């Protein structure tokens, strides 16, 4: 598989066609807005951000990218959706946040800028590509030795089907129907194996839990649905 093949065009279209709703904190992407402070907090437990050069892989409209930039990082957001790159750029201009965006695949950027970044983030994206291991390898190539790589994704266990698809998409309607496909979810053991094969060592993993009564997300021990992990590239 070549770099440009590792994409499901229908996934890019699915997200890109909703680009104008990206920054509505109560809209279709509310979940990403709600979890953003938590993932930023997790990232900051492992990485210093001020003055560091980061790349945010599969950045969408830039929710995490802007958060990283606000925390003082020099961030490049990359995505294959032109519509989302445009929305991210525009939002950055409106808010005065200094992030940069480029439509390029992780694999191509890794060829151009190996070890070009202090840290790499890739959130809620691995479950939308044909070959997640290729993205993981690209992230490992993009980061400098000793730098951190962060991934978040959904666990392929029945509980994640019940909560992330049945409850979130069909019952609570927190996400548009069809956002996720259970068979693309990734078990933590699979993520760790692919990361290890790419020279990344696990430093920490935490669940992103949802409480349907308080309607709040929190970081916790339960990695049975959505989880976030920190890896260090070996020196
Ligand atoms: N990381 C962002 C957006 C997650 S939504 C956040 O968590 O806030 C998933 C994103 O992955 C979408 O923006 C989609 O366009 C992007 N994506 C899907 N396949 C991709 C690929 N092969 N290369 C780059 N981006 C991809």
TrEMBL record:
Binding-site list for S-adenosyl-L-methionine: 39, 58, 79, 123
Name used for this protein in its record: Ubiquinone biosynthesis O-methyltransferase
CDD domains: AdoMet_MTases
GO MF terms, alphabetically ordered: 2-polyprenyl-6-hydroxyphenol methylase activity; 3-demethylubiquinol 3-O-methyltransferase activity; polyprenyldihydroxybenzoate methyltransferase activity
Job of this protein: O-methyltransferase that catalyzes the 2 O-methylation steps in the ubiquinone biosynthetic pathway.
Membership in a protein family: Belongs to the methyltransferase superfamily. UbiG/COQ3 family.
PANTHER family linked: METHYLTRANSFERASE, UBIQUINONE BIOSYNTHESIS O-METHYLTRANSFERASE, MITOCHONDRIAL
Top-level taxon of the source organism: Bacteria
InterPro entries in alphabetical order: SAM-dependent_MTases_sf, UbiG_MeTrfase
HAMAP family reported in the protein's UniProt record: UbiG
Keywords from the UniProt entry: Methyltransferase, S-adenosyl-L-methionine, Transferase, Ubiquinone, Ubiquinone biosynthesis
Pathway where this protein functions: Cofactor biosynthesis; ubiquinone biosynthesis
EC number in record: 2.1.1.222, 2.1.1.64
């Amino acid at each position: 598989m070549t770099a440009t093949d590792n994409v499901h065009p229908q996934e890019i279209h699915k997200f890109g066609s909703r680009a104008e709703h990206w920054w509505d904190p109560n809209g279709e992407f509310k979940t990403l807005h709600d979890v953003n402070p938590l993932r930023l907090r997790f990232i900051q437990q492992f990485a210093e951000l001020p003055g560091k050069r980061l790349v945010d892989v599969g950045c969408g409209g830039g929710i995490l990218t802007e958060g990283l930039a606000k925390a003082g990082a020099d961030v490049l957001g990359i995505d294959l959706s032109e519509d989302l790159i445009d929305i991210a750029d525009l939002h950055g201009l409106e808010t005065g946040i200094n992030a940069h965006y480029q439509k390029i695949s992780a694999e191509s950027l890794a060829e151009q800028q190996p070890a070009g970044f202090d840290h790499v983030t890739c959130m809620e994206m691995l479950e939308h590509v044909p070959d997640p291991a290729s993205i993981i390898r690209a992230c490992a190539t993009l980061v400098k030795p000793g730098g951190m790589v962060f991934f978040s994704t959904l666990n392929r266990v029945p509980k994640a089907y019940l909560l992330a698809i049945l409850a979130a998409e069909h019952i609570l309607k927190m996400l548009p129907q069809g956002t996720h496909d259970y068979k693309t979810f990734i078990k933590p053991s699979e993520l760790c194996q692919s990361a290890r094969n790419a020279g990344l060592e696990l430093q920490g993993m935490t669940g992103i839990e949802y409480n349907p009564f308080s309607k709040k997300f929190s970081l916790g021990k339960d990695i049975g649905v959505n989880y976030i992990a920190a890896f260090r590239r070996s020196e």
